[in-house]
Amino acid sequence: MTIVIDRTNLPPRHPEKAHRPDTAILRKPDWIRVKAPVSKEYAATKLIVREHNLHTVCEEAACPNIGECWTKAHATMMIMGDTCTRACAFCNVKTGLPGALDPQEPENVGHAVAKLGLKHVVITSVDRDDLADGGAEHFAQVIRAIRRLSPGTTIEILTPDFLRKDGAIDVLMAAGPDVFNHNLETVPRLYLTVRPGARYFASLRLLQQAKELAPAGFTKSGLMVGLGESREEIMQVMDDLRAAGVDFLTIGQYLQPTRKHAALERFWTPDEFKALEATARAKGFQMVSASPLTRSSYHADSDFAALKAARLAKTTA
To answer: pLDDT digit string (tens) for 133-162?
Structure first.
């Protein structure tokens, strides 16, 4: 039996984009195509996520790597609900007025991480500008729950910018994440159209503060390409990130979710990504992941192991 869901009376995922003119969606090149997820391991991961009433950025942001990652039980938990208070032009996460925080969520995340048997987990969230601390304490509670329920798991947090939320970064770093990740997403020139609710230098300062508060920890940031940025602008962002002490850089291809989202200008080729990776490594990043399908949490477990090894090699050389 086929079940048809009537969506005609459902609110739009992106009401702020409803009146934007449609833009053409470019045909994907062969190097960026992925297979639909069908494995039994994928289904098992999905069941655990549902059983614990959790959201994942894998689903909400329509990540192209969900089949590969969930087959390996690598689900990126998205806390504090499924509705974001920002309206970034590139993002597919639902926007609007979010509901109250779920007080059971930290425990649910901890139990799910333990049941999935994760060695490394990435925890991200929607923006919660409606909360006095932006959700920093909730993040900290999730970290503490994972430490208690799955003590062998290393924890990477991918956070919002907590713009104008004094003390948020102190709360986060006091909880002791192994990796602090905050994405710059694009070059400064494009912030007003691509990431209008954010401020480039505020994001840079957040990354710098994370390193200052936990010098022995790792910091990480990511960029999308294909929005009209130039190679020279990307080089400047790399320099800014290195000046902020960032250890790990990810660079991936922007994929336009709908005709109402920011227009995709072009697809960068695999060879161009290799060149970006070589440049980033030459600038001093301890770890770089750059490919068309790279996302912040893609291969995060193996990349974290490589990052630790790179630091160890540097300190013992």
So the answer is: 999 999 999 999 999 999 999 999 999 999
- State the pTM of this model: 0.90
Angle between the N-to-C axes of helices 105-116 and 40-51, in degrees from 0 to 180, rounded to the nearest 10: 160
Distance of CA 140 to the CA centre of its chain: 17
Alpha helices (runs of H) in 79-175, residue ranges in sequence order: 105-116, 136-149, 168-174
Distance CA 316, CA 211 (A): 21
CA neighbor of 206 nearest in space, from 234, 155, 166: 166
Contacts of 166 (CB under 8 A, 6+ apart): none
Q: Cβ distance 185 to 224 under 8 Å?
A: yes
Beta bridge partners of 124: 78, 158
Task: Give the separation between CA 42 and CA 60, rounded to whole angstroms.
Answer: 16
pLDDT per position as a tens digit, 77-98: 899 999 999 989 999 899 999 9
Characterise 40 by phi-psi region: left (phi > 0), alpha (psi -120 to 50), beta (else): alpha
- Which structure tokens are listed for 266? 């072009």
